[in-house]
Protein 1
Amino acid sequence: MALKKKTPSVQDAAGTSSDASFLLAQNRQQSRMETLSRIIRSRPPLDRHPPERIGNFLPEWFDRNVEKPGVLLTDIVELCKAELPRQLYDAVALAGIHRGSLTIYVQSAAAKAEIDSCLRSSLVSKIQTRTHGVVQKVRTVVNRSMASNDFSKSATKRNSAER
């Protein structure tokens, strides 16, 4: 005896089961799946930008934010090396350029006074010419943490010799 395959039935609002309502629900579900499948297939791919466009952004950013300021600072270092005495050049460190202001760290107040006099004489105008007007003003800041070991040892030797 062959068993009949029983299809599940869905109960309608009255609570009675009917094969017609089951087929209707199944057709609705299949229709929804087809619609969803069609929407997914018709969607554009998520990667809309070709790799060249994304790859070109990084060199532009690097050039603008790293390379150009680095070239400016290199030019300023070369200028300072040529214009400043060796001892004064060793007491100076360039901190950076921000909004047209070049910040220079100096070891001591005496070195700051010497640098300021050099800047007032002609160094600022030479820096402005070399950087094509990017640097408008120069700030000097005493930074005591720059003192090298040789400088602090020589100061200690002088102090002990005076006693």
Protein 2
Amino acid sequence: MDKVTVSFTPEIYIALIIILAIFILVAVYIVILIVRVNKTLEQFQGELRLLTDHTIKALKNIEETTKETTQLLNDVERQINRFESFVDNVINKIPFLKSRKREEETDDFEPEKSRGHINNLLNNLHAIKTGLSIFWTKLRE
């Protein structure tokens, strides 16, 4: 077999050197871009970690506040129930108040006709009891 020799002109060598230089510059540019993207991703990861830490702390605070609020609402409910029980006990212990309570439960009850300190006390206790019951019902909705 015969050897084929290819001879390049100086212009082809110069073109190949220019193409090689362009490839090297592009490779360096790509490496620089990758380094910058990596730094940006590291910064993003750090900020995301910080945001996650703050979010976890906030969620823990919300959880604690929710527990405390639930406990407070349960305490309020117990106090309302105790007060209602107290009012009912007071009414049941005084015979006059028992009959008065029956009058209140009828449709012809007229609070304007109430006289005396005991009647005023009963009206006030009944109003407070009713108000607390309505407040608690609305709060639970």
Protein 3
Amino acid sequence: MIDINLWTQVLTKPVETFRKHKKTEMATAFWSIVISGVIAGAIASLYNLSIVLYFGGIEWIMYRGPFIFNIFAPLITVPVYAVIGWLIFSWVVDFIAKSSKKKSNFEEVASLIAVILPPIMVLSSVMIWIPFVGFLLRTLVVLYALYLVALALNGYHQLWYNLGMGSGKKK
């Protein structure tokens, strides 16, 4: 389910990767999102733990026991929000494609987005460890993800290039 080779190809050679990409099953796409969400959540939890230990130490954890759940909350919340976000974003893109009179299939759109989302999610969670410029780098990674989505969907049904001035017609 986790294909590191595919992740690096999506990030480094997106056009060739999207041309060769075959539709994956929704279950495989779902588990890919969940597993990468758990990885991103674990990275965020380690970050939270390091901040607590640096500023508060063990005493802080001992006297504020219930707050320890806040440290490890990303292990649960990140995968859940990742799946919800993936489904909503896939639905929105599918809706835009259908409203511009393109043939679109929700499963194929969701499959394409599920190829892009996992490496971006893990990469952006690693960026929180970089002081000061991490937020800027995360913003750039998210903008690159939107570019990758546009490339993937252009290969799928020529959506983004044809919407130019809102005409929805091919020139």
Protein 4
Amino acid sequence: MKNQNKAIAIVLVLLAFAAAVLAIVHFAIREQVPEGAIAIHVGEAVKYVDPSKLTQVPVKGSVINGKGQEIPVDEQGYELSELLKAAKIDASSIGGIKVTAADEFSASLTKDEVNESGKAYIVSGDEGLQLVVFGDPNMKRNVKKVERIEVE
């Protein structure tokens, strides 16, 4: 029994060590986005856009949470198509985008949604930059702590 416990302890120590090594490697190779900026990936190219350097527009409307309750939105922000334009990307020629948070939660939008005026915005909230998508049956595509946009 003692040998079995010793073997289990050794396996647990090795697993903990492997997890620590993987965490260090992950943080060492993880993309470091400048504070307040969004990384916009187009193929292998990466462009950084600082939304605070763009002109804000009113973002007003409401979104529906998972319980079906209407949540009012009254912020200042940036239309997604304008962020792409700031990165010198023609939003009318894309296939769609994927918006990803610091914790890797992501949401996809079609080309039509990106180009529809009043549909999708990036706003600055309590938890950093946030994607707000109007017209969804629930707000599951409202990504908090946005760090990256991948153009498809």
